[in-house]
Write a structure and sequence with these properties.
By secondary structure, the protein is mainly α. It is about 80% helix and about 0% strand. The protein has 16 helices and no strands. Helix 3 packs antiparallel against helix 10, helix 3 runs parallel beside helix 11 and helix 7 packs parallel to helix 9. The protein is globular, with a radius of gyration of 21 Å. The protein starts with 6 loop residues before the first helix and ends in an 11-residue tail after the last helix.
């Protein structure tokens, strides 16, 4: 039976996926607004801000690993309706996340130029990126708190609050972008510094909204500020045991992303860095929907396995594979069709347009694999409890396939789009691993005590 007959699965998938996907879309829109508005300032501004945001990507990787540990453990405890354990797990996660945010804030505030120079060699890009980074780094702590609390709410099947928080952030960010980047309503024109300040203020607004909801209005988890000071040695041990492979996997992904940026930042083709910024924006746009659905699959998986319903989970796994393969094909076609209209949003050089066109052509193929393997390996395998497998799989592909092939391609002097294709090749190759792993069903593990 390829499709489960359990109607509650489809209902839960839709009710969880829509707000998560919309939240991701809104969050993406905030970044897109920054990119497009700054894009009117030229190639150096776009590239500088993109490189400045590489540290935000690193923060998202760390916090994403911590949030993943919160979500996977808490969702399984939610299957048992053990909210006391969930509150302790959330408190542990927030403390870890704040430590990471504080370290990155300190480094970027003190050494912004040195950090940007890791990713780019062009002096204009380094200077512009440093201007952006030295302000936006102060948003990191607020981001950590917000994302941890949203993960806590998702684990108990409250996904809409994340959407509302992101909508408020979008309105604040776009409004302040217009005022601060271009100098409206009596403000000076601040350029990329204005974009950074707008992002900082929007992050603060996000944190205030989610904190008020979680501590004052939520009736499921009933988390209180005092709970954040509590701990539990056994749950801390579980968090470290199951969280470290998730964080390690995220670090592998971060290494891949940051090294990829460094590799592409050193391509000799005109407009290569700007083109990569545009192409990755398209990639993120395509990813928001599938990521929302994948996140929903993860919540359902954790809850189902936590409740001990493994036979039901086998049905769900077959259905998930069909749904996400079809979604991948549709997404790939859509990416190809919106390519030219999307690139036209940017006021960049003809060379950057030509390069971006080639990169997006590559993405229209690799995004099919991303859809399938992301949902299977993250929504099923990782959320199902086999956390270390995903880490090992990512490690092998990144360090033995993706980065070596891209480095060799760069040394051989092949066109930049071929190097870009090497950096994305794992998205297709991982599908073959995912098919075998999922259909062996040895990934279902109950992590609760």
């Amino acid at each position: 039976m390829l499709f489960t007959k359990d109607k509650s699965f489809y209902k839960s998938l839709v009710l969880l996926a829509i707000p998560i996907a919309l939240q991701n879309l809104v969050t993406f829109s905030v970044n897109l607004a920054d990119s497009v508005m700054v894009g009117s300032l030229g190639d150096a501004a776009v590239s500088g801000m993109y490189m400045g945001n590489q540290i935000q990507t690193l923060l998202q990787v760390f916090s994403g690993g911590i949030e993943g540990a919160i979500l996977i453990l808490a969702a399984q405890y939610w299957g048992k309706r053990d909210t006391e354990s969930i509150r302790k797990i959330v408190a542990i996660g927030i403390r870890f996340s704040l430590i990471v945010g504080a370290v990155l804030t300190l480094v970027c505030a003190l050494f912004p130029s040195e950090v940007i120079s890791i990713f780019a060699k062009d002096r204009d890009i380094i200077e512009t990126g440093a201007e952006y980074l030295r302000i936006v780094c102060f948003s990191y702590l607020f981001f950590c708190i917000t994302q941890s609390l949203i993960a806590a709410m998702r684990s108990v099947e409250i996904a809409r609050i994340g959407l509302y928080v992101s909508l408020c952030s979008l309105v604040v960010n776009i409004g302040l972008n217009y005022v601060m980047i271009f100098g409206k309503l009596g403000f000076p024109a601040m350029g990329v510094e204005g974009a950074a300040l707008a992002t900082l203020i929007a992050r603060i607004v996000e944190t205030v909204i989610i904190a008020v909801y979680v501590f004052a209005y939520d009736k499921k988890l009933r988390l209180k500020p005092g709970d954040l000071l509590k701990t539990d040695r056994l749950l801390l041990r579980d968090f470290v045991k199951y969280g470290l492979p998730i964080i390690a996997g995220q670090l592998v992904w971060a290494t891949n992303m940051l090294t990829s940026s460094a590799i592409m930042g050193r391509q000799t083709a005109d407009g290569a860095v700007t083109a990569m910024s545009i192409a990755n924006t398209v990639n993120n746009l395509a990813y928001v929907v599938m990521n929302g659905m994948s996140g929903a699959v993860g919540i359902i998986t954790g809850k189902t396995i936590g409740a001990g319903l493994e036979d039901k989970m086998r049905e769900y796994a077959k259905t998930v594979q069909i749904i996400f393969l079809a979604l991948g094909v549709v997404t790939g076609i859509t990416v190809f069709l919106i390519r030219d209209p999307f690139i036209s949003l940017y006021a960049v050089s003809d060379a950057a347009v030509a390069e971006a066109t080639k990169y997006i052509n590559v993405l229209s193929v690799t995004i099919i694999g991303t859809c399938y393997q992301a949902a299977c390996l993250f929504g099923l395998v990782k959320s199902g409890g086999d956390i270390s497998f995903v880490f090992k799989n990512d490690f092998i592909f990144v360090f033995f396939v993706v980065l070596p092939s891209a480095i060799v391609a760069t040394i051989l002097g092949v066109p930049a789009w071929v190097v870009f294709a090497c950096l994305k090749c794992d998205q297709i190759l991982k599908c073959f691993v995912a098919v075998v792993k999922i259909n062996r069903y040895n990934w279902m593990k109950n992590l609760t005590r």
